[in-house]
Design goal:
Elements: H1 2-22, E1 38-42, E2 48-51, E3 57-60, E4 65-66, E5 77-84, H2 87-93, E6 98-100, E7 106-121, E8 124-125, E9 127-128, E10 135-140, E11 148-152, E12 159-163, E13 166-171, H3 172-178, E14 187-188, E15 213-216, E16 228-233, E17 238-244, E18 255-263, H4 266-279, H5 281-311, E19 324-331, E20 336-344, E21 350-357, E22 366-373, E23 380-381, E24 385-388, E25 394-400, E26 405-408, H6 410-414, E27 422-426, E28 428-429, H7 437-444
């Protein structure tokens, strides 16, 4: 037992040294392909909501920023924000993803989402106001609740646990249903359009609706001979028409229908539309703005989910759909990198010493070598000692000394002789330098 424990500790130490030798500081391996920030100008005197292109929502309360003296900043602040939802984005930003447990074991983060947020003034450092914290609702693709939040210490570049996030799941249908309603516009009169008239002219309460046509919203025919007809403007372009029977005063037996104004000829319809747009201008703008926001959020979610699926096994994405959206909300304690993760072990099953060669079998040197395992949203940094699960789909890549992408595919992994301790990794080297995220994605995942 003592011997086994000793070997295990030495193995963990080797893993840790293996990663640290290659990754010393937070430096993007391909500077031009680093994930770009979006920048915003914030007025600290007002509450602000930012809708990021990733679908993430940033809620900034007023007085959220402090200067070095702890004073509330009143002038406008520049804020920048970017997200990382898959291992390639993490790789291109040069972010460390290892975490040391209390027993000294080196683990690797599996991420439910990560972002970097920063705020600054031209000549002054900006800090988070602990009494008015910014909250971020970040798009995620897992509902598991075993994740915690971490901040990256800028000095030690170690992750520091900060707490838990709050998971929310919504549907596009519910979001649209809860959005401000668009006032109903007038319509061309259909076959069930009707007019109302007070034939006895007892109170003349319907005089304002003389020659007015009503179109039932439910598309059903209406027609009643009633003691009284009541018209109620619902203030959203619709009218509630109530038919009061002759024989009873019971509220339950009254017939009601909700209608919009309808017009028989083109000129009347055109005039009504102009009046409608003028009357409800503000309501229309508010409702349309909210609907546009929902559409943007769902379009961004679908785009991110498609990319996420590229890195994940089919089993890992079962239950995820474009109709339901998962978000994780957390408060910002410090500006910088914020991660929602849980520590997991390195892959197991095979451990081999890799010798990297080109297509001519000439040995080459690589830097920033990483491996991903499909189905795990994690990034494993290696040098020459590679640990992987041979039953999984694995992909390894690194950068040559002349800045070209070299990669080793799942098919290549499947050809490794696991009975040997050493293997030749004949790398596929892209002939030109790749300088964008999309270019690298198209090479590593050519069929996606």
């Amino acid at each position: 037992m003592l011997s086994i424990t000793s070997c295990k500790q030495e193995e963990n130490k080797n893993i840790q040294n293996n990663a640290e030798e290659e990754f010393i500081s937070l430096v993007p391996p391909i500077k031009e392909a680093d994930i770009k920030f979006e920048e915003f100008k914030i007025d600290p005197s007002n509450d602000t909501i930012i809708y990021h292109s990733s679908g993430t929502e940033i809620n900034i309360p007023k007085n959220a920023f402090l200067n070095a003296k702890g004073e509330v900043i009143k002038e406008k602040v520049d804020l920048k924000f970017r997200t990382f939802s898959n291992p390639l984005e993490t790789y291109l930003a040069g972010i460390p993803m290892t975490y040391s447990m209390e027993n000294g074991e080196e683990m690797v983060f599996e991420s439910a989402g990560m972002f970097e947020i920063d705020a600054y003034l031209p000549e002054e450092k900006v800090y988070v106001n602990p009494n008015n914290k910014i909250s971020v609702s970040m798009v995620s693709f897992t509902k598991e609740d075993n994740f915690k939040t971490y901040d990256l210490d800028p000095n030690s570049q170690k992750w520091v646990e900060t707490g838990k996030d709050k998971i929310t799941e919504t549907s596009k249908e519910d979001a649209l249903k809860n959005a401000p309603k668009m006032p109903e516009p007038p319509r061309k009169a259909g076959k069930f359009a009707f007019q109302i008239e007070d034939v006895y002219n007892t109170e003349n309460s319907l005089k304002d609706y003389k020659n007015v046509w009503f179109e039932p919203i439910d598309g059903k025919e209406v027609g009643f001979d009633s003691k009284d007809i009541l018209v109620k403007d619902l203030k959203n372009g619709t009218y509630e028409i109530t038919f009061v029977p002759w024989t009873t005063t019971s509220e339950k037996l009254r017939n009601k229908t909700v209608c919009v104004l309808a017009f028989k000829d083109d000129e009347s319809y055109s005039n009504a539309m102009n009046a409608y747009q003028k009357k409800y201008e503000n309501q229309i703008k508010i409702a349309q703005k909210e609907r546009d926001k929902i559409e943007r959020e769902w379009n961004a979610y679908e785009k991110e989910l498609r990319v996420y699926n590229t890195f994940m096994a089919k089993k890992s994405v079962e239950g995820l759909s474009f109709e339901r959206r998962i978000t994780r909300t957390m408060q910002i304690n410090n500006f910088g990198f914020v991660n929602c993760d849980y520590p997991s072990s390195y892959p197991s099953g095979a451990k081999i010493h890799a010798i990297y060669v080109d297509s001519n079998n000439k040995e080459i040197k690589l830097h920033d070598i990483v491996m991903i395992e499909k189905g795990r949203n994690a990034l494993y940094r290696y040098m020459s000692k590679i640990r992987f699960n041979p039953k999984k789909e694995n992909l390894l890549w690194g950068i040559t000394n002349d800045g070209k992408l070299a990669y080793f595919t799942t098919e290549d992994f499947n050809k490794i002789d696991l009975s040997k301790k050493e293997a030749i990794f004949k790398m596929r080297i892209h002939p030109t330098e790749l300088k964008t995220y999309d270019e690298i994605m198209s090479v590593l995942f050519p069929n996606k």
